[in-house]
């Protein structure tokens, strides 16, 4: 396992406050949003327009305009970002994580005044992040702190209401959430669905049934999706040999990885890597 850890590229941007637009992903880049992934630090997803679905810890939610979705560190998720969707993904520094919830939260801002208040705070954050003025980064961190306060107040206003509360607390949702947590810890290994099910004290059939119930996907699909994202990320953002990518992403061998990857992506790992300009492959996330 130590060898695998040494192959995984460092991810310094995860420690920095950053904002990136999302939506309208091309077919070639849909893996960046739709494939299951997680991050070392939290994320806040703001949907400005459009609608789609997001899967967090194996539970599917529908999202619409004026939705805020908070995703804690090391939480597996993936979402649709079709041509009608536009929004932003905010990377929250590790040092600020304690100011945000310890679990995933999906807020639907239906009140017009709440929407205006959020947009005012968000516009201020975006302005400071794009500014070259003195102390802009410091101002951006303060703006993010105000966003955290706004988010906490909205949670208090919406706490224990809506259909998502019962869905999250169902036995199936709890089991699938535990399964996705295990995937995050063990996907680089050769553990199969039966191994995960045994760890959770259920049968593989029951685990798959619960995954389909909460996310519409099988247990195997969720695991394969997480491995595929890691493989894509390493191919696009590092110069690691194909055999090392296969190992880090949890495939048994480079040959098996190449077959599975080509079947899913429509091209070999080498061709996928060559489709991105060399200067963008910096060896880090």
What is the mean pLDDT?
Answer: 88
Radius of gyration: 19 Å
Largest sheet: 5 strands, antiparallel
Decide which structural class fits the backbone. alpha+beta
Walkthrough of the structure:
The protein has a 5-stranded antiparallel β-sheet with strand order 1-7-2-5-8, covered by helices on one side. A 3-stranded antiparallel β-sheet has the order 4-3-6. The chain is 48% helix and 14% strand. With 285 residues, the chain is α+β, with helices and mostly antiparallel strands. The chain has 12 helices and 8 strands. Strand 3 (52-56) and strand 4 form a beta hairpin. It has helices at residues 2-7, 31-34, 112-129, 136-158, 163-168, 171-186, 193-200, 204-215, 219-237, 242-248, 254-265, 269-274, and strands at 18-22, 43-49, 52-56, 59-63, 67-71, 77-79, 86-91, 105-108. The two termini are 21 Å apart. It is globular, with a radius of gyration of 19 Å. It folds into 2 domains: 2-162, Regulatory protein AraC (Jelly Rolls, Sandwich); 170-280, Arc Repressor Mutant, subunit A.
Question: Summarize this, please?
Answer:
Helices cover 48% and strands 14% of the residues. It has helices spanning 2-7, 31-34, 112-129, 136-158, 163-168, 171-186, 193-200, 204-215, 219-237, 242-248, 254-265, 269-274, and strands at residues 18-22, 43-49, 52-56, 59-63, 67-71, 77-79, 86-91, 105-108.
């Amino acid at each position: 396992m130590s060898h695998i850890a040494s192959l995984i590229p460092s991810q310094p941007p995860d420690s920095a406050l950053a904002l990136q637009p999302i939506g309208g992903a091309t077919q070639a880049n849909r893996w960046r949003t739709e494939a299951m992934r997680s991050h070392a630090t939290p994320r806040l997803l703001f949907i400005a327009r459009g609608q789609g679905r997001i899967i967090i810890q194996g539970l599917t939610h529908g999202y619409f305009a004026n939705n805020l979705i908070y995703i804690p560190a090391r939480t597996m998720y993936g979402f649709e970002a079709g041509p009608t969707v536009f929004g932003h993904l905010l990377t929250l520094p590790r040092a600020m994580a304690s100011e945000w919830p310890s679990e995933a939260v999906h807020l639907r801002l239906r009140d017009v005044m709440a929407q205006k208040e959020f947009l005012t705070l968000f516009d201020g954050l975006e302005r400071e992040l794009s500014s070259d003025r003195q102390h802009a980064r410091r101002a951006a961190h303060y703006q993010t702190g105000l966003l955290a306060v706004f988010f906490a107040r909205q949670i208090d206003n919406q706490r224990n209401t809506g259909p998502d509360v019962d869905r999250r607390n169902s036995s199936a949702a709890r089991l699938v959430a535990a399964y996705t947590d295990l995937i995050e810890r063990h996907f680089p290994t050769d553990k199969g669905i039966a191994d995960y099910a045994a760890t959770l004290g259920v049968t593989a059939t029951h685990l798959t049934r619960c995954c389909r119930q909460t996310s519409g996907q099988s247990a195997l699909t969720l695991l394969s999706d997480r491995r595929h994202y890691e493989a894509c990320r390493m191919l696009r953002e590092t110069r690691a040999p194909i055999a090392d990518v296969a190992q880090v992403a949890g495939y048994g061998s480079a040959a098996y990885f190449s077959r599975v990857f080509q079947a899913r992506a429509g091209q070999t790992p080498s061709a996928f890597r060559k489709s991105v300009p060399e200067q963008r492959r910096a060896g880090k996330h």
